[in-house]
Amino acid sequence: MEQILKNKTHKRLSVFKSNIAGRNQSGSITVRHRGGGNKKFVRILDYKRPLKETALVISIKKDPKRSAFIALIYYIFSNVISMIIAPKSLKQGDLVAESYLQLDHNINNKVEIAYLEGFSYFLSELPVGMVISSVSLNVTKRQIVSRAAGSYCVIIKQDVSNQESKLTFIKLPSHKIIKLNNMNKAVIGIVSNIDHNKYTLKKAGNSRWLGIRPTVRGVAMNPVDHAHGGRTKGGRPSVSPWGRLTKGKKTVNKIR
């Protein structure tokens, strides 16, 4: 482990990303109150884990661009270094691997599988009630669901009645229930850094370091700058600077 960290080959997995300050490709501001902040390097993470072998966890790191911790892993046989999102209980020296469905061709039954945290499984391998994270929505695409700090999904049902399209029902962190193909992949365990939401900013400078600029109240502006400007008391509900309602409006269209 010390030799791998000393060679600093994992530094190549970090790429600098410039701050766009809330602007789109045409230069227009699409997200207000963004700009400045410390320079940050984006870590290139492996969301697919294409290597079908065991990897050793070298270290657990903090990624400045995401809330969860990341794990630096080393594939022993392929001599490859990669980074993945670290589950809560994963620590230095642990092993992570891909688990594939094993069938006994004589009796056509599944072989018992040990469910280890940090391992990547097919949804068909996991039982009902299992806590998972980093779930893929498509068989060929990367894992995109439940990657934030402390988030997780729960398997609530396995539908094997239809042999052509076997489905797995999972409950998302938003409590919404979706159905996915059994051949989609997921990682066992809750995402690390579960105390991320307890962090409080100590001073105004902390927000500026994060690239968050000050927010000015509409009533403190002039009428030309905001619909609430001019120090007029009341007269209309709360609106955005462009006159759209911000409180009490419907957010979901009712399907009839």
Automatic annotation (TrEMBL):
GO cellular component, one term: mitochondrial large ribosomal subunit
Domain of life: Eukaryota
Pfam entry (one): Ribosomal_L2_N
Domain Large ribosomal subunit protein uL2 RNA-binding: residue ranges: 22-98
Domain called Large ribosomal subunit protein uL2 C-terminal: residue spans: 115-245
Region (Disordered): 222-256
Biased composition, class Basic residues, residue ranges: 246-256
One of the GO biological process terms: mitochondrial translation
Sequence intervals crossing the membrane: 68-86
GO molecular function: RNA binding; structural constituent of ribosome; transferase activity
Keywords associated with the record: Membrane, Mitochondrion, Ribonucleoprotein, Ribosomal protein, Transmembrane, Transmembrane helix
Family from the record: Belongs to the universal ribosomal protein uL2 family.
Listed NCBIfam families: rplB_bact (TIGR01171)
Name of the featured protein: Ribosomal protein L2
Species in which this protein is naturally found: Gloeochaete wittrockiana
This protein's encoding gene: rpl2
